Amino acid sequence: MLVELFYCLIFFFFVSACTGFPNGVTPVENFNINRYAGLSYEILRLDHSFERDLTNVTANYRINSGEDVIVLNRGFNRKTCQW
């Protein structure tokens, strides 16, 4: 019973921590997601562990029929010679 309560509290913390906007941040008005559909090439990056050792990094943004955005990120790893 105590373990279930612990997991419920952790779950509640993560769900409630992701609501609302940070102070000083306002959403973009008149945003048109269709303008961003297609292939984007990385020209600059922050050092994220999931992109380490990757070159030729791209993001392909696609909008499905339900207006959900599907993103496929790709990069070539020179060490393993794999995408």
Mean of residue pLDDT values:
82
Helix and strand pattern: HEEE
Q: Report low-confidence residues grouped into runs of 5 or more.
A: none
Write out the strand line-up for the largest beta sheet, numbering strands in chain order: 1-2-3
Our count of helices gives 1
Mass-distribution shape: extended
Mind summarizing the main beta sheet? 3 strands, antiparallel
Q: Would you tell me the structural class of the helices and strands?
A: alpha+beta
Computed over alpha carbons, the radius of gyration is: 19 Å
Q: Percentage of helical residues?
A: 10-25%
What fraction of residues sit in β-strands? 25-35%
Q: In whole angstroms, how far apart are the ends?
A: 45 Å
Overview of the molecule:
- This protein has a domain of about 45 residues.
- About 20% of the residues lie in helices and about 30% in strands.
- The protein is built from one helix and three strands; from the N terminus they run αβββ.
- Strands 1-2-3 form a three-stranded antiparallel β-sheet, with no helix packed on it.
- β2 and β3 form a beta hairpin.
- It is extended, with a radius of gyration of 19 Å.
- The N and C termini lie far apart (about 45 Å).
- The model has no long low-confidence stretch (mean pLDDT about 80).
In short:
The protein is α+β, with helices and mostly antiparallel strands and about 80 residues long. It is about 20% helix and about 30% strand. It has one helix at about 1-15; strands at about 40, 55-65, 70-75.
